[in-house]
Specification:
Layout: H1 2-11, E1 29-33, E2 48-53, H2 55-59
């Protein structure tokens, strides 16, 4: 998922505190929050991570 990984990294101001975020395994999910209320207002590097979960986290 290199494209999804690059997209998620570009959206966030700071990465989540998760060891697997840098390689973004298949099935991983990122929830990001933005101060903006409209999609057109969102800029790269302005999101904050709310949650990042991998399939392995769910089975642990």
């Amino acid at each position: 998922n290199p494209g999804i990984c690059a997209f998620a990294q570009a959206l966030l101001a700071n990465p989540p505190n998760h060891l697997r975020f840098e390689d973004y395994p298949s099935g991983a999910t990122l929830i990001a929050v933005f101060k903006q209320t409209e999609w057109l207002q969102i800029k790269w590097g302005t999101g904050q991570p709310n949650a990042f979960v991998t399939p392995a986290d769910l089975s642990a």
